[in-house]
Amino acid sequence: MKTENTHDAVRNTLMRELDKMNAFKNGSNKYIGRLELSYGYGKQIGRESFDKKVRWHLDFDKELGVHYNIEDFSNGKRNNSIKR
């Protein structure tokens, strides 16, 4: 995906991508951070579809900085998943 210049632009891109996937049309559950070394551990960092096949979450790494990840497990996990 292209790099956006503002948080609002990034959030809008995230919402457009999720709308295309149609995974959250009936709602979603909280997605809680699981990485113990992370600031987001034990906190809500995103949302997950009811069937647990699609989720998005706020993430950080030293190269990209703060960003969103979308993970699609509709075709299975590991090598079959799609991560954006």
Describe the structure.
It is a single chain. The protein has 84 residues and is an alpha+beta fold. The protein has one domain. The protein is 18% helix and 35% strand. The chain has one helix spanning 7-21, and strands spanning 28-32, 44-49, 54-61, 65-72, 82-83. A hairpin with a 4-residue loop joins strand 2 and strand 3. The longest helix has 15 residues, at 7-21. The radius of gyration is 13 Å and the shape is globular. The N and C termini lie close together (7 Å).
Task: List the main descriptive attributes of the protein structure presented here.
84 residues; alpha+beta; 5-stranded antiparallel β-sheet; 1 helix; 35% strand
DSSP strand tally: 5
* Strands side by side in the biggest sheet: 1-2-3-4-5
Largest sheet, described in full?
5 strands, antiparallel
Average of per-residue pLDDT values: 89
Q: For the CA atoms, what is the radius of gyration?
A: 13 Å
Q: Strand portion, in percent?
A: 25-35%
Low-confidence stretches: none
Q: Percent range for helical residues?
A: 10-25%
Number of helices: 1
Tally of discrete structural domains: 1
Question: Helix-strand pattern, N to C?
Answer: HEEEEE
How far is the N terminus from the C terminus?
A: 7 Å
User: What structural class do the secondary elements suggest?
Assistant: alpha+beta
Shape: globular
Can you give me a brief rundown of this structure?
The protein is built from one helix and five strands. By secondary structure, the chain is an alpha+beta fold.
